[in-house]
Amino acid sequence: MLRKLIFIVFLFQIIHSEYYKDRIRIYVENSVKNFEINFTNSKSNNDELNSLMDLNGATRIERWLPNALPVDRDGDIYLNRYYMIYFFSDSILTESLLKMFTSLAIVDHAELDPIYRPTYTPNDPYWNNQYGLELIQADLAFDLWDIDGGEIPGQMTSGEIVVGVVDNGFEWDHPDLLDNVWQNLGEDADGDGVVIIQSGGNWIFDPGDINGIDDDGDNYVDNFIGWDVSFNDNNPMPPNNQYDHGTNVAGCVSATTNNGTGIASVGWSVKLMGINSTDDPGFVTDGPQGILTAGQMGANVINLSFGGSGACGGYQSIINTVYNNYGAIVVASAGNGDDNGNTTFDFHSPSGCDNVISVSAIGPGDNFDCWAHAGTTVDLCAPGENIRTTDVNGSYGSFLGTSFSSPITAGAIALLWSRFPSADQEWVIDRILTNTDEFSDMTSSCNAGSLEGMLGTGRLNINKALTAGIFPSLFIQEVNYLNDSDGDGVFNPAETVKVKVIVGNEEGWADGENVIATLSSEDDRISILDETIEFSNNIPSGGSAFTLIDHFLVESLEDAQLGEIPCTIHLQAGTEPPYYETIIDINLSVSLDQYGFDFPTSGMVLKSSPLIADFYGNSMGQVFVGGDNGDMNGYMVGGNELTGFPFAAGDKIRSSPAVGDVDNDGSNELVFGSHDGGLYILSIVGNQEMVYLQNGYIVGSPSLVDLDGDEDMEIVFTTQRGSNSGELFAIHHDGADVDGFPVNINEKMLVGPGIGDLENDGSIDIVICTWDDNIYAIDDSGNIKPGFPFLSTNRFNSPPTLVDIDNDGDLEIVAGNDSGILHILHHDGTEMTSFNTGDDIRGGISVSDLNDDGSYEILFTGYDDYLHVWDPVLGQELPGWPVDLGTNSLSEPATADLDNDGDLEIIGANKNGQIFVFHHDGNLFDPFPTTISGNIESSPAIGDIDNDGDYEIAIATTMGLKVMDIKTEFGPRVSWKMHRGNRYRSGSLDMTLLSHEANNEQTPKVFHVGTNYPNPFNPSTTIDIQTASVGKLYVKIYDVSGRLINTIINRDIEPGYHSVKWNGRNFSGDAVPTGIYFIQVESGKDLGLRKIMLIK
Questions:
Q1: Which of the two ends of the chain, N or C, has the fewest CB atoms closer than 10 A to its terminal CB?
Q2: What is the rounded CA–CA span in Å between residue 20 and residue 484?
Q3: CA–CA gap between residue 206 and residue 228 (Å, rounded)
Q4: What are the two backbone dihedrals, phi and then psi, of residue 1051, each rounded to the nearest 5 degrees?
Q5: 95 φ/ψ angles, rounded to the nearest 5 degrees
Q6: Least confidently predicted of 110-119, 155-164, 973-982
C-alpha cells in the first residue's frame, strides 16, 4: 500500500507591520480587454494609468506572476491580472496613493506588498551557503519550537541527547562548537555545574574537577568532554592541523545555531562528545575502541564517518553491544565509491553491519552524482556535497563526502530524540527511515548498475520525522464489505456494497481529530455512490476507529472483470489549518472468492491438485490439497481446517489426494503419496490408519479401485526411484502387497496410473506412462499385457486417460508426451489415431461431450500455450478451439455446467496464475479470465463446498489455495470436475460412469431409475440414476430371454445423481442385434428395471 503523506504547512508568516516601500500591487478590472505591457518603455497601453505612474515617480510596471495562466483563478480573481508597479522613492507609499490608483477605471483594487520572512531562519552568517539544511527541511523543523519565546531545539526539560563523534580529533573550543560540547557533570568534583572554564582567553578543564578519580564510575578518569582512545587521555583535541576530520564532522552534527557565528546545524543544541580514535590522521586506527568508549560514556547517538571494504568481523559485536547494552543508535557513512570516484555496490563496513544506519550522499536538487556508495545496505541519503562546516583553528570550510551526510543524519536523529525523549531506539529509527522523501535518481542508474532499491528509503526529512509527533499518522487498517447481495462479505460483480474502513493511527503520533475520509477511483468497473465518511470520534495515538453508520457506497458493474480496483482514500484531520492530510492508495477487490478461504497464504506452496469431495457424508464438500512443506491440508466450508488437519508427512506432497472407503467400513479415507516415499491412508479425523513406505518418490496421484473383487479398494500408485527408475505398486488398505505387485518397471514415473477394464472382460487393468517414452498396460496380476509397451517419441509428463472413444465397448488409452504428440491406443496397444501439437502436453487429459453429439472430445493443454478440444473420431478440433492461454499450462482442464444452461463450461489455467473459464464454444464465461498470485502447476477442482447450489472452483498455487465461488446455479450434467476425473483419481470414464453429482438442493432421499434417452437408440443410450445410500451399484443388461448380456457397472458409489451409458455391446465387445433389452439397476436393497429398444 502506497502511503503519500502531505503536510500543509505555512512556510512563511505575514508580518503585518512590514511592507515593501518601493512597490504596490494592482488588479486590472476583469472587464478590461487587451491590457498590455510595453517592455520597451516599461509602461502599459493605458494612458490614464501611465499618467498616474509618471505623476508619482513610478519606474516600471510588470506582471506580478509571469507564469500565471488564464485558468489560474480564485473565483472571479484571475492571477494573471495582477501587476506590480515599482517607484524610485520609498517615501510616497501612503493610503492616499492606493486610493488614487484604485480610482482608475481599469483598476479594481490596489494594495501594498507585505514582506514575507521564513518563520524561523537562524542568524548564522553561512546559513545561505547551507543548502542541505533547507533540503532536509530543518528550517521548517525548527518552527516546532517557540524560539522567540525561549525554546531551543535540541534541549529538553531534563537530561540531554549526546552524539558521540568517533573520529580523528575534536577541536572542542571552536567558537561554533563550544556551547554544544558535552560536559560530563558526573566528573564535576567541585560541584560548580561546569567541567570546562575560560582562563586567560583559553578554554581549559576546570582545575577543581581534575582529581584523578573516576567519579562517575564509567571506567574513565576525568573524562570531562570525551576521550582520546589512541593516546589514552581525556582530551580529544587534535594534536595538529592534520587531525581536522572530526571537527568537520562535529559541525555537521551540532554546530551552535542561531548564535550569530559561522554555520547552523540540524542538531541546533544537542551535545557533542569527542572521541579521538586514531594516531594517524589518514586513518581511523582505533575505531572499535572509540565506538565502545562512546557507548560506555553514555552517547545516545554515535557517528562513524569512516569505513572500508572489509567484513564487519568484530565491529559487529561492538556495535551490537552499544546498541543493545548501552541503548545507542549508530550512524555511519556509506562510503565514497571506488578508488576512481565512481559509485560501487560493494559491501562497505561498518555502515553495512547490522544495527547501523547507513547513509549515502546526494547533492543540491536531490541529485545522486554517482560518486558515493550505494547498495542494499544503504538505509537513506542526506546532503553530502559542498557541505559548509567547522574546521580546525576556529575556521570553516566546504567539503564533499558521505562523511558529512552521516553526521547530518546523526544530528537529525538527536534532534528528533530530544523532542521525544521517552521513545526507544526502534521508534526513533523508524521515524527517521519512514519519513524520508523519495527523489527521482532513486530509479536511475550509474556505471555500477541500476539504483533501484540501492539508496534506501529516500532523502532525510527531519521535519517529517518530527511532525509525526504533532500530526496523526493515519492509515487504513482494514476494509470490509457489508450488505452485499449474497451476504458473504465478498464484493462480486453486479453488487452494491457498503464499504467500511477501519482507520488506524500509529503509536507516538497525535490523536486524529475531525477525521474525514474521501474515496475516489478512475476505474470504470465501479461507481462510487457515496464517497465520504466522517468520523465523529477522535482516533487516538496507537488506536483505531470505525463509524457505526457512515460508509462508502460502491457499485460494481455486471460485466466487471475480476481483480483489484485501484482506489484512493484521502484522509484529512484537524479542526483548523494547517490540516493533516494523507493520500492512501488501496485496492477494492471485485472477486468471486469463497468466503473464509484466505489467499494468498504466506509460506504455502501448493503443486498438488486439490480435491473436493463429501468426505464426511454430510452433503457438504471438503477440500484437500498437499503442500511442499509436507502438510496435507483439509478444509471445510468457511475455510476452517478440518479436525486432524493439516497432517504432516515427512516431505513435500505433490501427489494429488484421492478419497474412498478403502476398507469398506462405511467411512471414507484420504489417500496420498509423498516425496518421503510414504503412501498414507488417513481417517476422517486426520489419523494415520496406515503408511506404506518404499524408497522412491510418489509424485503422481494414487488411484483407488477394487482390483481383486473383494469389495474393498486397493491403492495403485507409481514411483520415481533415483534418476531413471521406478515401480508400479498395488497394495491393500492394510499395507499388504497385491499378489504380483510391485512391478519393477525400472523406468522413472512422475504421473499416476489410469485404471479401467480395457477389454470389458470384467478384470481391471492398469495403464502407466514413463520417462523412457513407454506406455504400459498391466493386468490385475501384475503382468504386462500383450502388445505393450507402446514406444513413443518422448517422455510422458501427463498421466494416461481411459475412455471408450469408438463406442466398441473397449477402453482406449489417451496419452500425450513431451513432443506434443497425443496418442490414442486401442486396448491391445495398436494406435487408433494421434494428434501433434508440436510442444509438451502437460497436466493431464480430460474427456467430455461438449457438443452433445454422443461422442467424447479430448481436452488438454501444454507448452504450446493452447487449450485444445479435439474430436478424435473426426480428427479435428471443435469450432472455436483451440484457445490461446497466453503462456504454458500445466493444468488438466475441468468441465461442469456452471450456469445450468445444459452446456458444459471448461475451466483451465496457465502457469502464470491466469484462470480461464470458457463456454463450450470457446467464448469466455464472464467475468473470466482473472489472474491470481503465484504460479499454477496443478489442476483445478470443482464442487459445491457449501451446498448452496452453485459450484466452487479450487485452484492450488505456489502462494496458497484459491477458492472461487461461481454465483450461478449449476446444472446436473455429469462431467470431468477434477484431476483424473473423479475422487478415486482413476483417470477413466470406465465406459459409462463418470462421477456422482449432487443437485442444487440435497442428496437424494429415495432411489430412482429414470427413463433412458434416446429410446429407441443407436448406437448408445444413457440412463439417469439417483441413489440414496452408500454401497454397491450394479447396472446390468439383459436380453428378452433373461440372459445376462453385460454388466456395465459394479462398484461402490456415494449417494447422488449418476449418469450411465450403454454402447450396445456385450461382454465380448461385440455389437448386439436389434431388439428389446432390459437395464436392471441394483443399489443395496433397491432394484429398478427399465425396458429399452435398440434399432439398427
A1: N
A2: 63
A3: 18
A4: -160, 165
A5: -60, -35
A6: 110-119
Least Cα distance to 889 among 938, 941, 956 occurs for 938
Q: Check: pTM over 0.70? Answer yes or no.
A: no
Going by C-alpha positions, the residue among 349, 196, 215 that lies closest to residue 274 is 196
Smallest CA-to-CA distance from 2 within 438, 834, 564, 586 is with: 586
For the record, the C-alpha cell of 368 comes out as 545522486
Contact, 808 vs 837, CB < 8 A?
no
Do the bridges between strand 1056-1062 and strand 1075-1083 make them parallel or antiparallel, or are there none, so unpaired?
A: unpaired
Q: By percentage, how much of the chain surpasses pLDDT 70? A: 95
Average pLDDT, the chain: 89
What are residue 335's phi and psi, to 5 degrees? Answer: 110, 160
Bridge partner residues of 330 (DSSP): 302, 356
Provide the residue count of the chain.
1096
pLDDT in tens, 11-23: 222 223 356 688 8
Rounded to whole angstroms, how far apart are CA atoms 951 and 899?
A: 9
Beta bridge pairs of residue 775 = 769, 790
Beta-carbon contacts of 636 under 8 Å, excluding residues fewer than 6 positions away, are 620, 622, 623, 642, 945
Q: What is the pLDDT of residue 124?
A: 72
Which of 802-818 are b and which e, b meaning 16 or more Cβ less than 10 Å from the residue's Cβ? bbbbbbbbbbbbbbbbb
Question: 891, 861 in Cβ contact below 8 A?
Answer: yes
Rounded CA-CA distance 931/563 in Å is: 7
pLDDT per position as a tens digit, 192-225: 999 999 999 899 999 999 999 999 999 899 999 9
Check the CA dihedral 956-961-962-965 and report its sign. positive
pLDDT band of residue 114 (cuts 50, 70, 90) is low
DSSP-assigned letters across all residues of 237-249 = --SSTT--HHHHH
Residues 225/196, Cβ–Cβ less than 8 Å: yes
Contact 117, 39 (CB under 8 A): no
C-alpha grid cell, residue 233? 587521555
- What one-character DSSP code corresponds to residue 327? -
Helix 287-296 to helix 314-324 angle (10° resolution) is: 10
Is 303 within 8 Å of 357 (Cβ atoms)? Answer: no
Distance between CA atoms of residues 164 and 880, nearest Å: 75
With residues binned 3-state (H G I as helix, E B as strand, rest as coil), the percentages for the chain, rounded to 5, are 10, 35, 55
Q: How far is CA 467 from CA 473, 545, 620, 1011, in A?
A: 9, 22, 55, 79
As a whole number of angstroms, the distance between CA 550 and CA 535 comes to: 8
Cβ atoms < 10 Å from Cβ of 419? 23
The per-residue pLDDT for 338 is 86
306 contacts 278 by C-beta, under 8 angstroms = no
pLDDT digits (tens, 9 = 90+) for 159-196: 999 999 999 999 999 999 999 999 999 999 999 999 99
Strand partners, 1083: 1033, 1086
3-class secondary structure, 377: coil
449-468 confidence digits (pLDDT tens): 999 999 999 999 999 899 86
pLDDT at 116: 42
Predicted pLDDT of residue 20: 66
